[in-house]
Amino acid sequence: MQQLVCNRAGLRQKNYLEKVDRKKPHAPITRTNCKAKFCVRLDRKNQNGSCYFVEQHNHFLTPMYVHPFPAYRAMNDANKAQIDILHMQGVQTCHIMGYMLAQKGGYNGIGFSKKDLYNYLDRHKRVKIQDGDAPFLITKNIRNFPSNLICGLKRVRVI
């Protein structure tokens, strides 16, 4: 039997609450002995399942429109393509975010945060730099050096 309970189920230990000579202040009490749970029982022989659900929360639930967890935030390919086009045209990052918010109707419709946008553009820029001018020029100049100059460079001591 698998039993899923509310994250506020149970109570804090009494010895933790009664201790007065603590060095650190008490953490806020988050356990309220909530009775909400969801149980699933699977019969392996017949492959049948039975379940029951108890919805008796004794606390306020989390608001519906809270900032999403990082695991649920994602930029889809259409958003990435639009961001790349706007960035190539010279639009500043904060204005890209404002444009996307106006287009999608707010943070609920956009699916990512401002920090996600900045991180995406930073990663994109680092990839361009990694394959960019400096490595290309170094490899091109080494290939174009005269062979006698390379032999002379082998004897030079680098400090």
Overview of the structural elements:
The model has no long low-confidence stretch (mean pLDDT 80). This protein has a 3-stranded antiparallel β-sheet, with no helix packed on it. The chain is elongated, with a radius of gyration of 30 Å. 44% of the residues lie in helices and 11% in strands. A hairpin with a 4-residue loop joins strand 2 (37-43) and strand 3. The protein is α+β, with helices and mostly antiparallel strands and 159 residues long. It has helices at residues 14-18, 77-88, 93-104, 107-110, 114-130, 133-144, 147-154; strands spanning 2-5, 37-43, 48-54. It folds into 2 domains: 2-54, no CATH class; 62-159, no CATH class. It is built from 7 helices and 3 strands, in the order βαββαααααα.
Brief account:
Helix content is 44%, strand content 11%. The chain has 159 residues and is of the alpha+beta class. The protein folds into two domains: 2-54, no CATH class; 62-159, no CATH class.
Key descriptive features of the protein:
159 residues, alpha+beta, 3-stranded antiparallel sheet, 7 helices, FAR1 domain-containing protein, FAR1_DNA_bnd_dom
| Helical run tally | 7
Unreliable stretches, pLDDT < 50, 5 or more residues?
none
Strand content: 5-15%
End-to-end span in angstroms? 70 Å
Written as H for each helix and E for each strand, in order along the chain, the element string is: EHEEHHHHHH
The structural domain count equals: 2
- Average pLDDT rating: 80
Number of strands: 3
Query: Helical amount among residues, as a percent range?
Result: 40-55%
User: Main sheet, how many strands, which sense, barrel?
Assistant: 3 strands, antiparallel
Structural class: alpha+beta
Inertia-based shape: elongated
Largest sheet: spatial strand order? 1-2-3
The Cα radius of gyration reads 30 Å
